[in-house]
Amino acid sequence: MEMTFRWYGKDDPVTLKKIRQIPGVTGIVSAIYDIPVGEAWSYERIMELKNEIEKEGLRLSVIESVPVHEDIKTGDGDRDRYIENYCTTIRNLAKAGIDCVCYNFMPVFDWTRSDLNYELSDGSHALIYKEDTVLKMNPLTGDLSLPGWDASYTKEGLKALLEKYQHITEEDLWNNLKYFLDRVIKVCEEVQVKMAIHPDDPPWSIFGLPRIITNKKNIERFLKLYDSKYNGLTLCSGSLGVSPDNDIVDMIHSFADRIHFAHIRNIKITGDKCFEEAAHKSEYGSLDIYEIVKAYYDEGFDGYIRPDHGRMIWGETGRPGYGLYDRALGAVYINGLWEAIEKNSKNK
Ligand code: DNO
Fold it and tell me: Of 39, 100, 262, 332, which is most buried by a Cβ count within 10 Å?
């Protein structure tokens, strides 16, 4: 496996120079942020990103994300043109030596929280989710906490989009996902780029929008939509793990050959459809991170891992979930577990 770290580009206060000093991190997870969703990424722009990262002694390992245009998810408008552009991006990424792309198929909203700066009992700050608070928010008046929000929506654009989704069922979304995969994975097979879908976060419908990458049964269905190793998963423990019915360790064993990218973080379930993001160490949350790392090790996982969201600690401020310190602690903790599991299993 390769330990990686997400970097948001030149404007990220967590610089490559800082990331390079985290023991055991060699890979960067990044993206090009200023190309509008749906347009193709040129080879030159990809190489620019790659070279910038390599200059600092790191490697561009995973693209997170190449976003999917809403027309593809709703199955209308210009979807064929956007899929064509997506395929061009995949080909250009392959030419630049990239072999793993993370994306999601969540309608309109990416990951959602009710509070981005909640003070935990130790004085650190974390992102939390409370279903009743979220349901009281109106996405049209901007009072929603949306860390993964595409800020380019206008109020009118968002309203029209939400209306369009009123007529789109989960089955429609499955069909539109299959239409996308049928065209994109063919290209991925040709150029050997592994697609890794990110599960929905949280893994249930919000604001009445359909969400489908939510549990084991649906992931099985997803993998069968196009049965190829190039049609794979980003297994995000923190996204799927907030639902007590999702057994992450079991999913790792069941889907091992299709998991290309592992997001590892802990969460603490605090009620029905309520959770707090916790420190990575098992005892702070509802997930057993040791068992999760062990499952990857036992399956011979050779993909990419990144510590996922961190809390804000030691007075750090910055992009919600993506400060330096707590994520760095997460990386070192996961590497420590890996080393112990590896040595232990070799000594047996
Ligand atoms: C949140 C992230 C997501 C993820 C996208 C993948 O921290 O895990 O925003 O990048 O959903 O497309």
Answer: 262
Report the alpha-carbon angle 324-327-328, nearest 5.
75
Domains, the chain: 2-346 (3.20.20.150)
SS3 at position 337? helix
Annotation says 167 is catalytic: no
Residue 102 and residue 65 in contact, taking contact as beta carbons nearer than 8 Å: yes
Q: Which residue's entry shows tokens 């722009």?
A: 45
Is 298 exposed, middle or buried (CB count within 10 Å of its CB: 0-12, 13-18, 19+)? middle
Can you tell me the distance from the alpha carbon of 159 to that of 219, in angstroms, rounded to the nearest whole number?
A: 30
pTM higher than 0.70 for the full model? yes
- Show the DSSP H helices in 96-169 as ranges: 131-136, 155-165
Distance 147 CA to ligand 1 centre (A): 10
Quick one: pLDDT at residue 148?
A: 64
The helix (H) or strand (E) run that includes residue 296 is helix 289-298
Our mutation pick for probing the ligand 1 site, out of 198, 200, 263, 304, counting the most ligand atoms within 8 A of Cβ, is: 198
Distance (Å, whole) CA 132 – CA 223: 33
How many Å apart are CA 265 and CA 339, to the nearest integer? Answer: 18
Give CA–CA dist 263/252, Å, rounded: 12
